[in-house]
Amino acid sequence: MGVKIKANDDRILAIATAVLLLSRDDLSQRGATPGLITRALAVYRTDYAGYKALHPKRDRAAVSDLSSLPQQGRREVYEKLLAAVDVVLARIERNSTQFSSLLELDNFFAFNLKQFD
Length: 117
Known about the structure:
By secondary structure, this protein is an all-alpha fold. The protein has helices at residues 10-30, 36-46, 48-54, 60-64, 72-94, 102-112.
């Protein structure tokens, strides 16, 4: 039997935060490269302990911190990603979207953020 993930489930905000934090790390190290979102999702799912150790603070203030992105182009990409994630979260809430698995949730984020991938 599948897992029911409702629109107000904390796991939705957790995946959004992880995508932002891990993508910001990637942008600061490599710049905007193909696979930004899918790489972040893969790291989050395969190395959760490493993600938690690297990002002990995982909240809105943490994802809004741009200090690790001194290059203007990379900062602009991240700001656009931040806005796009907010749109995805609002859409989930507005439509009361439910997911039947973590994979379905990940795929929803990957699909809706494909312009960054």
